[in-house]
Amino acid sequence: MKTATNLLIAFLGIALLSACNNKPKEWVYSGTIKLTGIAPIGMIATADGFWLSDVDHDRLVKIDNSGTVLQEIAGLTRPMHIDGHDDNLYIPQFGADKIVRWDGSALHEVSPGDSLDAPGGVAMGEGMLAVADFFNHRIVVNKQDSSFIIGKEGHDNGSLYYPTDLKIDRDYLYIADAYNNRVEVYDHRGKYVRTIGWQEGIRVATGVEAGNQQIFITDFHGNRLLVYDVYGQLLQTFNAHLDNPTDALLIDDKLYVVNYRGQDISIYELR
Amino acid sequence: MLALLALNLPARAQEATAERAYIQIRVNGLSCPFCAYGLEKKLKKIAGQKNLHIQLEEGLVTLDVPADKKPAKETIQKIVTDAGFTAKEVNFSDTPFKHEDEDSH
Lengths: 271, 105
Fold this sequence. Notes:
The complex is a heterodimer of chains A (271) and B (105).
Chain A: H1 2-21, E1 27-34, E2 40-46, E3 49-54, E4 59-63, E5 69-73, E6 83-85, E7 88-93, E8 98-102, E9 107-110, E10 119-125, E11 128-133, E12 138-143, E13 146-150, E14 165-168, E15 172-177, E16 182-187, E17 192-196, E18 205-210, E19 214-219, E20 224-229, E21 234-238, E22 245-251, E23 254-259, E24 264-270
Antiparallel strand pairs in A: 1-24, 2-3, 3-4, 4-5, 6-7, 7-8, 8-9, 10-11, 11-12, 12-13, 14-15, 15-16, 16-17, 18-19, 19-20, 20-21, 22-23, 23-24
Chain B: H1 2-18, E1 20-28, H2 33-43, E2 50-55, E3 60-66, H3 73-82, E4 86-93
Antiparallel strand pairs in B: 1-3, 1-4, 2-3
């Protein structure tokens, strides 16, 4: 009887420890990359650092992991949310209604398939080039040399109001529907799927990042980052070291968040 | 000849300052860089505009235009409204407006 009791206690102990170990991990602040003379909006990773759009100074800068500027692409017009694909950088020129591609040595104009009025973000993936067309309240998608439009001006599900950023994964397009204070999700054919973040009182959803298991929204005036599962269930919000965040970038188990006003990049780790 | 040039100088200097009209716009709802640079893009369509300066925190825009092409207050208000904002105040001047963020630098 005593042996059975001991076995039961041991079993319960192991079960308790196991339950503790299964506690969901949360994003925790782990450091900052200070920037000097850069007003960042969008960010992508490179092998040895990051490319940032420096909107106030009409340029892109490449920095290393300590924030030192390694390279500059000057002469742009208000570059916003950028993307990279096959060693090319795709840059929306918000003030010039153009998308340009940087191949490492020169800029080339890219046709998105329709006219734009202040492109706020560009995304490449799954054979598509998609552009957040800010003043037209829509997304212009170019796929296999034909184009189609996602969204129309409005506040209902499936409508957009000043979109600024977007990401493409293997199933969906995630759109930062900035002044509807939410993220809208569409499939690759442009069919509305779901809305994320509409209940959380976001104050301008300027940026979105899509990981395999989590979706991230930057809340510009709320100085928050909101973390959701892929179905739109809120998992975590945090505001540590955020100052007008505009973009988030997930690399392995690290999350990098760009702060426009703070002029730095905050780093978070899952613990 | 030199005397003629000397006589001409003050007149030309006066002409140079008189040929620009200075505009200051107070804007409601100008809150993020997308808004600010969106409005900048729309205001750049004003003929002959120069020195367009936006102070995000203060919601204040200044620019100057050729005096003979000075747009009407209603035209400026429409540009601001079409960009998604409200022009709370539009002021004109013959001399440049001071930027309110100059003191902080």
